[in-house]
């Protein structure tokens, strides 16, 4: 209750994203490799190297490979697969899945797409035959990395934490911040700062004018 | 919960003081506070004790568990056991902090007591982390932890519940989802 602003949580891990969540908006902007199953008229203006040329009405021919953001791919995807077929990005495929199961802690999840878990969970909507393996791999990766996140977030007090969070993805960074907040709260209480009145961080930037200024 | 809120709850604990003023029995909503006679010990809630001490109207007596040998025994017992041992008071952390900050002149060997209590706290928090990690690793459905105090739960609780929430969502993805409504063009 001492928070000034409550952010809308990301729903990406669950069945559907939250429309108003900023994290989800950023996550669904990541690109996904797709293959068109039908020709798309006039889209060739955007993908000049793939278009069929002016005589086919600048269409993107069937079977060409594009990279579309997740929100667009999800909207166009249909169970009868008339428009798109989705390929899984490399990190959700067999090869990387074995790397994760071997040791999840060494992987730099921030480089692999900063929204590894969210994007992976939303990928399950595309009905790939590997869905069960992907979701199992996401879960096991998280479990494997949990210990390190917990230890580093609960022990780093008043330090520069950029080295610790560098290899975490966005969801893990949120967890790290929660852990840090718990730790800072406790330390601040122990030092006695909890009973001191401090300016709220909402108004710290307001420059108060002196009374004499107002009088002039 | 904030740490400050837990401290507020801890201030209801009774401690013994020796007042230097006299006052008849006072009747408060929470209970009666017995007559105050100078030099005679009386039991009052911690909030009143701290307030009287700050106004220099009393002398605080340390609780009987706040003694170096006893705390050393408890600390060693805590280090040996793998589970949590019962603590001398469910609010040992808050009592230590408040009493040692406001009344360290009434408590013998205050620094050692502070160090011992901090050791006990660190041991217990470490045990809590190990148990949280094994809980997550084996994806247990529920766990039971005896003898945890509210302050310990409060410090690590938010992180643990958030992590378990994420894990739960990832786990429900394992079940094949029922087909969502899709529009036909």
UniProtKB/TrEMBL annotation, chain A:
Compartment(s) of residence: Chromosome; Nucleus
Record-annotated DNA replication complex GINS protein PSF3 N-terminal domain positions: 21-77
Predominant subcellular localization, coarse grouping: nucleus
UniProt key word Chaperone: no
BP GO terms, sorted: mitotic DNA replication initiation
Keyword Nucleus: yes
Keywords carried by this UniProt record: Chromosome, DNA replication, Nucleus
InterPro entries: GINS_A, GINS_bundle-like_dom_sf, GINS_Psf3, GINS_Psf3_sf, PSF3_N
CDD domains listed in its UniProt record: GINS_A_psf3, GINS_B_Psf3
All residue ranges annotated as the GINS subunit domain in the record: 96-189
Family to which the UniProt record says this protein belongs: Belongs to the GINS3/PSF3 family.
PANTHER family with a match to the protein in the record: DNA REPLICATION COMPLEX GINS PROTEIN PSF3 (PTHR22768)
Protein name per Swiss-Prot or TrEMBL: DNA replication complex GINS protein PSF3
UniProtKB/TrEMBL annotation, chain B:
InterPro entries given in the database record: GINS_A, GINS_bundle-like_dom_sf, GINS_Psf2, PSF2_N
Location(s) in or outside the cell: Nucleus
Keywords: DNA replication, Nucleus
Primary location: nucleus
Family, similarity comment: Belongs to the GINS2/PSF2 family.
Function noted in UniProt: Required for correct functioning of the GINS complex, a complex that plays an essential role in the initiation of DNA replication, and progression of DNA replication forks. GINS complex is a core component of CDC45-MCM-GINS (CMG) helicase, the molecular machine that unwinds template DNA during replication, and around which the replisome is built.
Protein's UniProt name: DNA replication complex GINS protein PSF2
Native species: Aotus nancymaae
Taxonomic placement: Eukaryota, Metazoa, Chordata, Craniata, Vertebrata
């Amino acid at each position: 209750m001492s928070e000034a602003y409550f952010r809308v949580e990301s729903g990406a891990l669950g069945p559907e994203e939250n429309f108003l969540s900023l994290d989800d908006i950023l996550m669904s902007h990541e690109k996904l490799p797709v293959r068109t199953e039908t020709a798309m008229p006039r889209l060739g203006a955007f993908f000049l190297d793939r278009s069929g040329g002016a005589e086919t009405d600048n269409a993107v021919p069937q079977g060409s490979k594009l990279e579309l953001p997740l929100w667009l791919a999800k909207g166009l995807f249909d169970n009868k697969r008339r428009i798109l077929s989705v390929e899984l990005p490399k990190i959700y495929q067999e090869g990387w899945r074995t790397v994760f199961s071997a040791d999840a802690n060494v992987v730099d999840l921030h480089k692999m797409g900063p929204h590894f878990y969210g994007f992976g969970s939303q990928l399950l909507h595309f009905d790939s035959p590997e869905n069960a393996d992907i979701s199992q791999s996401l879960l096991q990766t998280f479990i494997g990395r949990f210990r390190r996140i917990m230890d580093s977030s609960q022990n780093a007090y008043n330090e520069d934490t950029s080295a610790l969070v560098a290899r975490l993805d966005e969801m893990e960074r949120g967890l790290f911040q929660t852990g840090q907040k718990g730790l800072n709260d406790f330390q601040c209480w122990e030092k006695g700062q909890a009973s001191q009145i401090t300016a709220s961080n909402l108004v710290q930037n307001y420059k108060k004018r002196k009374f004499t200024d107002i009088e002039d | 919960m904030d740490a400050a809120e837990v401290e507020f709850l801890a201030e209801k604990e009774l401690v013994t003081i020796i007042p230097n003023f006299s006052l008849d029995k006072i009747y408060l909503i929470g209970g009666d506070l017995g007559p105050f006679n100078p030099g005679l010990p009386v039991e009052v809630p911690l909030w009143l004790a701290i307030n009287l001490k700050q106004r220099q109207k009393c002398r605080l007596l340390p609780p009987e568990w706040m003694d170096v040998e006893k705390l050393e025994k408890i600390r060693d017992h805590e280090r040996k056991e793998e589970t949590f041992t019962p603590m001398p008071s469910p609010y040992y952390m808050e009592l230590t902090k408040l009493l040692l900050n406001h009344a360290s002149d009434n408590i013998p060997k205050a620094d050692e007591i502070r160090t011992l209590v901090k050791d006990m706290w660190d041991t217990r928090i470490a045990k809590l982390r190990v148990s949280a990690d094994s809980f997550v690793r084996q994806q247990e459905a529920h766990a039971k932890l005896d003898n945890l105090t509210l302050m310990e739960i409060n410090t690590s609780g938010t992180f643990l519940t958030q992590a378990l929430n994420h894990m739960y969502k990832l786990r429900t993805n394992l079940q094949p989802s029922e087909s969502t409504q899709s529009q036909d063009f």
